[in-house]
């Protein structure tokens, strides 16, 4: 299959890894931003193909993982309202809130439905005019255009019974937050290709210049990631810090202008809290005033208690690349995909889930983190 089999070809992968070993002469710590990239790296054992001098660390690019616990609590409380149909992507259902998940709410009788697109929620609103349909809008720039289009269409149809609980986050501010930390060890980034399909990558140039780090927009197959690593290492070995695009078959520098215009029309940038990390200025999206009637948070105005996080969960440190899943004493025992303490064990893009499902041993995991990260 074109763009699939050739990007998983064993011989090509070995040749790419050999070239990385050839050009690498110094230790480098690189961060893959996206959780989907993390899963490919762990599942395919790519770290083990790299020289010991190159360390890959996980980033905060899992939208389910970084959705704040307060927003999970709000989604649960909204779902429990008698008139509400709450729609969500499936991997949000088991993410734990302070005391309950959406799956728990469903077991208590809440009408929680798994959908595959926000347009499914739009259809439900049309066919259930007597019910309030709420879509839990979680994601990075990748999912923002479809959510924006759904609100735009609902506005034109005057569907007053559709609203969105918005928890959108943005990649570049998260990268800046990682680089601004005094504990940061990241020297280069593999940027998320699917987000850049929407936004392009012009915004990364200022980050690269400000922090003197190379950034390579990268795809999600094994060869994509190894080529991204090679492009970063070549820059680092030559003292360069530039933005480059490995994912040329899908990403243009300017991105998708039509999608950007729709997102900009419906949403505006706001500060956003990230689970386990805290608030990052200008890192999220909210509905503009013109579309504020579709904002579920404002529509229902629920008064909730302050959220509480599991004291055992170290998800915030994992998402910043400062700890590995195996560093958590609850990993695989008190925290599993069936009974998670934190979102990275639930999400299909979560680092903890990747380690759990693909069976990396602790010895292998030691290869995946820099030694200095043991004392952040």
TrEMBL record:
GO aspect biological process, one term: protein maturation
InterPro entries: Hyd_form_HypD (IPR002780), HypD_1 (IPR042243), HypD_2_sf (IPR042244)
Keywords attached to this entry: Iron, Metal-binding
GO molecular-function term, one example from the UniProt record: 4 iron, 4 sulfur cluster binding
Pfam families, per the entry: HypD
Keyword Metal-binding on entry: yes
Family statement: Belongs to the HypD family.
PANTHER family assigned to the protein according to its UniProt record, in alphabetical order: HYDROGENASE MATURATION FACTOR HYPD (PTHR30149:SF0), HYDROGENASE PROTEIN ASSEMBLY PROTEIN HYPD (PTHR30149)
Name of the protein: Hydrogenase maturation protein HypD
